[in-house]
Amino acid sequence: LSASLRNDGYSRFGAENKWALFPSVSAGWMISQEPFWKNANLEWWDTFKFRASYGRTGNNGVDQDSAYSTLDQTDYADQLAYRIGSVGNYSLSWEKTHSTDVAVDLGFLKNRIQVSLDWYTKTTTDLLYNVPVPSVFGTTKVYDNLGSVLNHGIELELNTQNINNRDFQWSTSFNMSYSKNKVLQLGDDKTEGH
Q1: Counting C-beta atoms within 10 Å of the first and last residue's C-beta, which end of the chain has fewer, N or C?
Q2: pLDDT tens-digit map of 98-111
Q3: Closest CA to 124 of 55, 48, 36
Q4: d(Cα 141, Cα 169) in Å, to the nearest integer?
């Protein structure tokens, strides 16, 4: 069993949203080491392990001036002037990904055959997105937190030791995965009633 808690800060976000907590926890249970398993006399089945984890991570991939408005120096009629460099978003904050993983590890015939099966799901919220805005604002894009996406799937891995002696070794590895992505939300829905 292990757990961690991070409190990360990033100066490029808005004044009220610079900090975010990112917890994680994981656990594993080696069932094949338990007395009840050993008493079952399953000599052909060597390893049975269950593991699970949950965690939250953050993405801070934004430009340096994304949360704050800036001015750029320029010339106008041979005079020093200023124009809008960027329009900031003071509520800009971390993009967050919530991940869950559940898996089993199996080993047979003195662990010469090993199988791992993982099921996972990841939900990302508060996506950092460059939103188009009318050029009358002096810029055409502003960073904002909007939308969420879901990614989930399964992974299967099979490893075998076919021949393992001093003169010759032969092993094989096979893996397969299935993944599905879905956009859950992308901004406010303005289409209702149309």
Answers
A1: C
A2: 999 999 999 999 99
A3: 55
A4: 59
What's the pTM? 0.77
Residue 138 confidence (pLDDT) above 80: no
Joined tokens for residue 47: 């390893």
Spatial CA neighbour of 84 closest among 68, 65, 66, 70: 70
Query: 90: left (phi > 0), else alpha (psi -120 to 50), else beta?
Result: alpha
